[in-house]
Amino acid sequence: MAEFTHFNESGRARMVDVSAKDSTERVGTAQATVLMLPATLEKIQRGKIAKGDVLAVAQVAGVMGAKKTPDLIPMCHPLLITSVDISFKEESQPNQAGLCAIHIYATVKTTGQTGVEMEAMTAASVAALTIYDMCKAIDRGMSFTNVCLLSKSGGKSGTYTRPD
What we know:
Blueprint: E1 24-36, H1 38-46, H2 54-67, H3 69-72, E2 81-91, E3 100-112, H4 117-135, E4 143-153, E5 160-161
Antiparallel strand pairs: 1-3, 1-4, 2-3, 4-5
Helix pairs in contact: 2-4
């Protein structure tokens, strides 16, 4: 198991020094899933949510979330993000609990000395929170789950792909 890098010799929190690392292309992809009542998903699909186009707003919010990650997560480095792509997959067939889903996928890229995994997970989370915010008036029971890193590439540690 790798050692924790965010602690100094005294055991105090620190921002990792990445100055000696090579600048490489870094890509991180994360997901989040929003669970909701079938009627809520149907209203999103038909554009019947009073606050507007839910997925368009969530997409912009996800991009903004990726860009604001170092403002939210104390030890994250400010990065020159070169790309953020947010996509959605709707699951209209209710699960065993009677809920439908919107799966959110966030891919973030940079060329730099540290990765974009936190930016991708923040983007997916902020997009999920935005869906909740825009639909809470009709479905306060929505929840989001499965926020995780799906893959990352670049840097000394190489490629990671989440096992199925």
